[in-house]
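Table S7 (text form). Paired inputs.
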Amino acid sequence: MIRKPTILLLCSLCLGFAACATINPSKDVELTWDEAYIRIPGFLPSEILPNTKYPTVIYMHGGGGLSRAAYRDIDVVLKAGVAVIALNSYARTRPRNPSEDLSYTCPQGECWGTFNRIFAMRTAELTYALEKVRQVPWVDQNNVFAWGQSEGGYTIAAYPGVVFKGRIITGTGCHWGFKAKESVIAVISRDDPYVKRAHSEFSLPSTCLKVSGNASNLAYVELPGYLHNGAQNSVGERAIIEFLHRHISSSK
């Protein structure tokens, strides 16, 4: 068993919170991979023939965990003929995201400390998953994608560099930044109450456009309505499937 890597994250992620000195974002991070939900179109992982490769999406759920909505996202990927490795953030001890409760009003400063801790933890999970996915024999290493919903979407959007074939973000305003260099599709509902709940200048779902500086690598699909996950709209689902099909390349 490969030991988990040491992940050093700058204390600036905690924006000056004193708790930064005691937070270890990579504590038990391997559990999020070990207890991931894995699906391959038409097969169980144990049934894959030798030398068979599948384009694969690393999926990062929202603050509600691997919920019914997350499984519906996974079904969208399978419908595209793509395998899914859905990380389970709640396989380890971590705080609940305060934004999951739309009626909750954070005492001044309290929620930002929690948000920053969660962001550091989710970033560590993705870093660990990127190391582990390279060791999976049935993954087509030329076609590894990422999809993040809500809390997971913030993480996917802000993760720096060129590390995927493409990225999908839903239910997010990209509040933690946009550092992707690959092709990205954002599917956002215009009146998503969870995105609009965020503060001040980050109050509209179109924040991803603003944060990215209208980046040329970002395809932005804005849907009418209040749906938190645009993939669960027929237009959004079709846009995501078409995005995957457009960017999957031959591994030969």
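Next pair, protein 2 of 2.
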Amino acid sequence: MEGYNLSRPYIPKSIETNSNMLGFKFDWIQIIESLRKDDSKIFSGQSLYNDLNLRLIDHPKYKVEHISISSKVQLTKFLNDLAGRIQKEQEVPILHFSFHGYQEGIEISPSNEKVTWRELKELITPINIATQLNLMINFSSCYGQNIFKIYDPIERAAFLLSIGPKKKIMPNKLYYYYLNFYWTLIETKDIIQSIESKGKLKNEFLSIFDYSYFLAYLDEAKKTCDKNRLKGRMTQQTNKLIKKGFKVEDKAKFISTKSIEFKGRMMLNLANIFYHHFMVDLYPENAIRFRVDEHRLKSNTRDNTL
């Protein structure tokens, strides 16, 4: 299991793996915008900021901030500074990117610079670490959910949650979806209800939950540990050894011993991946938040955890 990249978005049968999204919380909405001069201002990130600001008058616990970005250097500096701010203030933002998007990333205007998903991941991962893995990133960008392409359980989690359009989408649809989403989230504190808040329009968006992606990764790992597949692999090895003088009568014992050793190494490897990805080495409490049961690999029991 050197690494794992999903060839297509993993959409869980039910996003309600945990109704509280494993302790998801936020303190403010940070809108980061980079649009072209000829873009409509009616459905811009600035308009979303203005409308949310008015609605937050009755909810002083939350706030919304807006910044316009005109270059890659400015974006990099802002996100780097944001990680430091979070560590200092101990407050968690939702990052809302209002950019033009393309299949492989987002575009900055007026510099016309491109930021690939991989480059963006490098910038937001320190922010997610600072939030103790509570970061939500949303995209008012065409193809915003191509962010899934950079998912890799071997690396630190770049975010906990994300929402964005699956393909090209009109600005008015982006605006009304997110206006309803954020307002419902502030009113209800219910992430599931908020995602569903705009009826059929939600079908044009994809919601990513890092925990669900990790479970998908474990399902793939389970196939590697499949009893019949493992037995076949060990049988092939012993047949090669027999040709070199290995005793046939020792074959069954050898297969059994090596199979157990292989499963043990796999479990240890997955445990290390789990601890690193979910930052348990930094925040021990995340072991409870992101509990992964051993049954994902071997059986249907829930007696043990990685």
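The domain at 28-211 is CATH 3.40.50.1460 (Rossmann fold).
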